[in-house]
Amino acid sequence: MKKPLAYRMRPKNIDEVVGQRHLVGPNKIIRRMVEAKMLSSMILYGPPGTGKTSIASAISGSTKSAFRQLNAATDTKKDLQIVVEEAKFSGQVVLLLDEIHRLDKPKQDFLLPHLESGLVILIGATTENPYISISPAIRSRTQIFEVKPLSIDDMVIAIKRAMTDEVNGLGTMAVEMDDNALLHFARSSMGDLRGSLNALELAALSTPANEDGVVMISLEVAEECLQRKALVHDKNGDAHYDVISAFQKSIRGSDVDASLHYLGRLLEAGELIVVCRRLLVIAYEDISFGNPAAAARTVSAVQAAEKLGLPEGRIPLAHAVIDLALSPKSNSAIEAIDAAMGDIQEGNAGEVPAHLKDSHYKGAEALGRGVSYKFPHAYEGHWVAQQYLPDSIKNAHYFKPVLTGKYEQALAGQLEKLTKGK
């Protein structure tokens, strides 16, 4: 029986791993381990299909170590014993243990001494938060690394590689794919490469060849095999970004119906991660002090949606969109930080005033550091006038309140009171 495309395309060495540059890129921790041949046990956690098994396989291939794969939920203690015996014979085994959060205590107790001795290099894989779901005994003997969803660019690289690989991929088949279909395969799985590759293989094997003997994978074929609609049929691939732009601008413009419409289009295309990220940006960029409580509610809604997934996740997201669209708007926070960073980028930073400098070391007083600092809590109202900005920009004002909501009106009143007190 032929194995699935996603299985066949697993990397054979660390250089073939797609994405996860924070772990396997030049000078990063896992690459350092491989190059130094100093492997240590680890836990890889992140969403399905993002490369946890691939990294384990690549580590084994790069170090020429024996590699075994078990599942903590379904494989027995006897299976672990067989792996340990093999490790004693070969010197060391890299063991990928899927669903490590379901490892029971007898199996855990059996493994622990072999992890400590280095006989077994455990690579635990889980979609759960290991700080919550995995026992302290295992955590203390492993390093914990987060595996992140692949970017669209990473997905495109992996899909193209699978299309052209003549040994493990589809390179021996006469298969062509249009750009819209490629983008849809890359975007719609939300960083799940396994899902995209399996859908790609289905498309290649189930689509009849044309009169020239070529299998043409169109956007329509990609939609059917992925079971997700594209945002629109768009030759240049711009519609993806156009809909996201329209989504934010509709909320910013307080059009609740348009906001829900574009939310629906994004969710219909399976863009849960995009929606969640964009709503967090909107909450703090466009609403901000206009309705600070709405920003906090948006964070809760996003967390609920990520936990629920689709389709149920649409419900808390709809709550957030309606809340944000109908909230008073303010962009004073982003304007303030951009103005402050603009000064810094132009070289208008200046030296920290002496009375604000760190004074918690011997000799600081002799240097005049912290000597004239006034401790605000020692004064009435817990405030006292003193200079905080560097001399060169001591009169700079970055925060300019937008008086659209009661909270920001209160901030503006407090700012005016403090300004007059200087």
UniProtKB/TrEMBL annotation:
Segments forming domain AAA+ ATPase: 38-150
Record bears the keyword ATP-binding: yes
GO terms of molecular function: ATP binding; ATP hydrolysis activity; DNA binding; enzyme activator activity; single-stranded DNA helicase activity
SMART domains registered for this protein in UniProt: AAA
Pfam families associated with the record: AAA (PF00004), AAA_assoc_2 (PF16193), MgsA_C (PF12002)
InterPro entries for this protein: AAA+_ATPase, AAA_assoc_2, AAA_ATPase_RarA/MGS1/WRNIP1, ATPase_AAA_core, DNA_pol3_clamp-load_cplx_C, MgsA_C, P-loop_NTPase
Gene Ontology terms: biological process: DNA synthesis involved in DNA repair; DNA-templated DNA replication
Family: Belongs to the AAA ATPase family. RarA/MGS1/WRNIP1 subfamily.
Protein's name according to its UniProt entry: Replication-associated recombination protein A
Species this chain originates from: Jeotgalibaca porci
Record lineage: Bacteria, Bacillati, Bacillota, Bacilli, Lactobacillales
